[in-house]
Design brief:
Elements lengths: L2 H10 L4 E16 H5 L8 E13 L5 E14 L5 E16 L3 H30 L12 H15 L8
Antiparallel strand pairs: 1-4, 2-3, 3-4
Length: about 170
């Protein structure tokens, strides 16, 4: 192919453009149950459970989207199942995205956008748990592609097939 033909092909392919315009905490809650109830004891073996969900939507401005990662971390004592702490964080970003085909936009927003924000979310969770009197909770890397696939599979099996009306 000639350079002219390559240039024409490149000109026709949309150029991906993505920019993080803002990132912020929409909601944060940390409950140190140990401190509130005055629990004591040396036989504490924390068991931490993490739940992650995603949410996103278009904004009123063309090519702008909000994407939120919601994390809920619950820690209980393995010995007697008493709660130690509860952390809930709703962390979001505003993104400018262009050049992504419509059929790929939703997965792009739910996979790539949270992936960009994850290091900041991880640091916040670590700081909050440490400042709350516990060892820093360093969340393992989240596979947002796998999370997206699981949610898509859940939704496809949860919704009944459309019924024909005659």
């Amino acid at each position: 192919m000639s350079d002219t033909a390559n240039g024409a092909a490149n000109a026709q392919a949309p150029q991906l453009k993505m920019q993080v315009l803002a990132q912020f905490i929409r909601d944060l809650s940390f409950e140190n149950v140990v401190a509130q109830k005055g629990l004591s004891g040396n036989d504490v073996q924390p068991d931490v459970q993490i739940q992650v969900s995603l949410d996103g939507r278009a904004r009123g401005v063309q090519h702008q989207y909000e994407v939120f990662t919601k994390v809920k971390a619950t820690s209980v004592n393995k010995v007697d199942n008493t709660p130690l702490f509860l952390l809930e964080l709703d962390y979001g970003g505003i993104f400018h995205v262009e050049g992504v085909p419509d059929d790929q936009l939703h997965p792009f927003l739910m996979i790539e956008c949270p992936r960009l924000l994850f290091p900041f979310l991880r640091r916040i969770v670590s700081d909050i748990t440490r400042d709350g009197g516990f060892p820093p909770l360093n969340i393992d890397t989240i596979d947002f592609l796998q999370l997206y696939r699981q949610e898509a599979a859940r939704r496809s099996t949860a919704q009944p097939a459309p019924q024909m009306v005659s």
